[in-house]
Amino acid sequence: MPSGPLNITALHGALRWTAAHHASYEFLFTVHAGKWGTMRVLVIGANGKTGRIIVDRLREGAHDPVAMVRSEAQIQRFADRGVDTVLADLEEPLDPALEGCDAVIFAAGSGSSTGPDKTLSVDRDGAVRSIAAVEEVGIQRYIMLSAMRADPESEGDPISHYLRAKGIADEHLIRSDLDWTIVRPGRLTDEPGTGRVRVAPRIETSGSVTRSDTAAVLVAALDHPSASRRRFDLLEGDIPIATALDGL
Ligand SMILES: NC(=O)c1ccc[n+]([C@@H]2O[C@H](COP(=O)([O-])OP(=O)(O)OC[C@H]3O[C@@H](n4cnc5c(N)ncnc54)[C@H](OP(=O)(O)O)[C@@H]3O)[C@@H](O)[C@H]2O)c1
Predict the structure, then answer these.
(1) What is the C-alpha to C-alpha distance for residues 154 and 4, in angstroms, rounded to an integer?
(2) Residues lining ligand 1, CB < 6 A?
(3) pLDDT value of residue 113
(4) Where are the domains positioned within the chain?
């Protein structure tokens, strides 16, 4: 038996992982989740367009968001909503930001207004750094907002540089010991959400999906057993989100 103080975060993560990987232990997690089921979820990229919706969804649901932001000026917006914040940058060590958290949703991105160097330092290396830090502190659950066509070998696509960066981060996550989910949406839009989507391991047609529905899928995936260790494409569709995840 290990000695020393009981690490609740690590215990929670271990129970989640066990329940997700061994059906016979599912009852254990159900009992556990019923009592201590609220997770503190670090949202990386919380101030982004999708990140803000993720934070609002978490606030409305069963879990507590912690908004990871890059500047003091961004803190007030979340404080006004009663949301905890932490100042951190993906280009620097992340361990302090993870303190007290039970799960991570990665929704950051360097965006199209920065150069290709930021695609590497944020979308690829920042994501990889966050995965390593999450492993290091003993958190288990990691939800990645990736992109359709993300592929470490992408060539010949107008955004291959970006798709390779996202693909390399995704492969790193898959090779980790974490309990991961990788959500790969098509083009993100700012239309109102519908609560209905289309998901599949690969969707060959291109298309779009709202940031609202994408955020809802990321949050639903947190404690949806079928989403554990799954990578899937996401487009607008006509299947209710929970049902769509059931079918993964
Ligand atoms: N746009 C699309 O059609 C599309 C399609 C598929 C997937 N995606 C992916 O979806 C995700 C979210 O997209 P979005 O359009 O909602 O993003 P967004 O509005 O551009 O927000 C990105 C967030 O990432 C943060 N960020 C940038 N660099 C950072 C760093 N070094 N450390 C910490 N945070 C950093 C930004 O912080 P600040 O607020 O401080 O700038 C911002 O809050 C991205 O990962 C993107 O790659 C996008």
Answers:
(1) 47
(2) 45, 47-51, 70, 89-91, 107-111, 122, 126, 145, 147, 185, 187-188, 211
(3) 86
(4) 8-246
